[in-house]
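Ticket #4471: structure export looks truncated?
Reporter: QA, pipeline team
Priority: medium

Steps to reproduce: submit the single chain below to the structure queue and open the exported record.
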Amino acid sequence: MVVIGGGFGGLAVTQALKRADVHVTLVDRSNHFLFTPLLYQVAMAGLAPAEIASPTRSLLRHQANARVLLAEVTAVDLAAREVHTRETPPLAVYWYDEVAAWTRAGCVSRPALELVPTLR
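Actual output as written to the record:
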């Protein structure tokens, strides 16, 4: 299984599959998970940046069926069952039941705030 993006959704899906009989590849262009709801506290010097950011690999270090690939996804070819990245050869996806994609965080409740990059 290929999970694209190491945000809230991608990390949650990967962790939920910890005991599943499947190999999970989490592809993300960043090597860390950023807990954005607390970003304002870093800006106010209430928290250190290290307190709201964790390396993705360390979050999944105890999950034997997961690997993290640092790459930027450029295309998903459903017909060829491949995920294309800038940095690696295409990743083969042998079967799939569903393809689901989210582009916005669920914690944003006001449409005007969706334009703020740190809240997405």
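Status: closed, not a bug. The export was complete when the record was re-opened. Leaving a note from the reviewer for reference: The longest helix spans residues 8-16.
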